[in-house]
Amino acid sequence: MPNPLVFFRDLLRQPAWIPIWVGMLMMVNLAGIAFWPEPLARWIVGVFMVSSLLMMTLHGIFGFSKVLGLGHVLWVALLPMVLLRLPDAVGTFRSYLLAWSAMTAVSLLFDLRDVWQYARGDG
Q1: What is the pLDDT of residues 75-119, one digit of tens each?
Q2: How far is CA 50 from CA 4, 45, 46, 109, in A?
Q3: Is residue 15 within 8 Å of 68, Cβ to Cβ?
Q4: Nearest CA to 95 among 35, 53, 37, 18?
Q5: Of 32, 119, 37, 35, whose CA–CA distance to 78 is shortest?
Q6: Is this structure's pTM higher than 0.85?
């Protein structure tokens, strides 16, 4: 099992915006706990936990490189699921899903760029 402390040590060595962004992603994903009775919130938290393990494993194999974007591959399926359920969501849960969707979409764009660059040999 990869050591998460090594991952976070390496994360903190990145430009300041990266650990800030990762911290915000962690918070928006774990905020799903506040909506635990909602099945979609449980999916968000569960996928976040699996993605975290995948990212730690990738980090253990490749170090802190652009291939870590593959750790969010499950979000590619989860994002459309959340977007399709948005019209039925109400109140703060709807606001949460909107925030989660926006941040996840931005993150996936970063991931796509990073994985593409990694595949081309750029990191």
Answers
A1: 999 999 999 999 999 999 999 999 999 999 999 999 999 999 999
A2: 14, 9, 6, 20
A3: no
A4: 35
A5: 32
A6: yes
Token code pair at residue 117: 């660059």
Residue 78: is it exposed, middle or buried by C-beta count within 10 angstroms (0-12/13-18/19+)?
A: buried
- 27-37 per-position pLDDT tens digit: 999 999 999 99
The two three-digit tokens of residue 100, written as one number = 């989660």
| Residue 123, C-beta contacts closer than 8 angstroms, at least 6 positions apart | 65, 66, 114, 117
Token output for 36 = 């635990």
